[in-house]
Structure formats: structure tokens, C-alpha cells
Write a structure and sequence with these properties.
Layout: H1 9-16, H2 20-28, E1 36-37, E2 43-44, H3 47-61, H4 66-73, H5 85-116, H6 150-153, H7 158-162
Antiparallel strand pairs: 1-2
Length: about 170
């Protein structure tokens, strides 16, 4: 039988793009399980650990706070999202915030592009209708979230979209 491949903390950091210090910190706050150790006390990691670090890295890039990541770590990678409707809703809401931030940043990029092309200030769209988080507001000052398109909804499984359990879809 072939032995499971293991990696040093240095190899793990190189593979994931996450610093050794950050990996140790994730262990310290229990986002990662405590690493097994060699006889000499050095940490060893398995592919499963590397996959978890990649997930943490991806969620972190979205701006998700570390504490909000914990529930996602408890779900098996092959689980049906429909079995976790509260997490699907959480990630859907988080995604909507990111889409709004992207739209807001695109306005800034468009403005910069216009400036680089030598257009005058009065030719740009007024950004004052955007709140700080990029969600547009109506005349009452209430947030006006953008509707989720069918393409955006395709990121979720059928059962997650309907909010029904996988068994009830059969």
C-alpha cells in the first residue's frame, strides 16, 4: 500500500501562496486542525489540509471575515449545498455585496480611463448615488440590492436554488 503524501509547512506555503506564519495562525485560532508532527517536531500537512487552506484563501479574497468562514469548513467538499440552505443564503448575500463592489469599482476605472483619454470632468457619471459599500440607494435612502440574474443563479445547484432538500426534488 502506498503511503499518503505529506508536506512540510514550507512546501504547503509554497503550494497555497499563504505564508508559514499565516498557516500557523490559522492553526492557532482553529481554522485549521492542529498539524501532525514528525518525530523532530516539524509540522506535516496532507492534501486535505492544503485544500482547506485554498478554501480559506479564496474566502479571504472575497473579504469574508475569518470567523464567518468557520461554518464553511465543517461541510464536506462533496456535500449538496441544498442541505445547507442557511450557508447558501449567506454566500449568496456575500456574493451580492461583491458584485456591487465590482460595479462601484468599475465606475472608478471608467472615470480613470476617461481622464487618461483627456475628457473633461463634467463628462463623468456622478457617483454620489452609490453608498460606501457600492449598493445603490433609492430616494428614501434605503438600499436597493441588484436582482440576481439567471447566470448568477447557475452557480448554485438546483436544490439550493429551490430551497428544497435533494430528496424532495426527486
Amino acid at each position: 500500500m502506498m503511503a499518503e503524501q505529506t508536506f512540510t509547512i514550507k512546501q504547503t506555503a509554497e503550494q497555497t501562496g499563504i505564508s508559514e506564519d499565516t498557516i500557523r495562525y490559522y492553526e492557532k485560532i482553529a481554522l485549521l486542525p492542529r498539524a501532525d508532527r514528525k518525530d523532530n517536531g516539524h509540522r506535516i500537512y496532507r492534501q486535505e489540509d492544503i485544500n482547506t487552506i485554498w478554501l480559506l484563501s479564496c474566502l479571504k479574497k472575497t473579504g469574508m471575515p475569518l470567523e464567518e468562514m468557520r461554518p464553511f469548513l465543517a461541510i464536506p467538499a462533496d456535500a449538496d449545498p441544498g442541505e445547507y440552505p442557511e450557508l447558501v443564503e449567506h454566500i449568496r448575500s456575500h456574493r451580492e455585496k461583491i458584485v456591487s463592489q465590482i460595479a462601484s469599482l468599475q465606475q472608478v476605472v471608467d472615470f480613470i480611463d476617461m481622464k487618461l483619454e483627456g475628457e473633461r470632468y463634467y463628462h463623468y457619471r456622478d457617483c454620489s448615488d452609490e453608498s460606501q459599500d457600492g449598493v445603490s440607494e433609492d430616494m428614501t435612502g434605503e438600499p436597493n440590492p441588484k436582482p440576481v440574474s439567471p447566470l448568477e443563479m447557475s452557480y448554485f445547484s438546483v436544490s439550493a436554488k429551490t430551497g428544497k432538500s435533494p430528496a424532495s426534488l426527486r
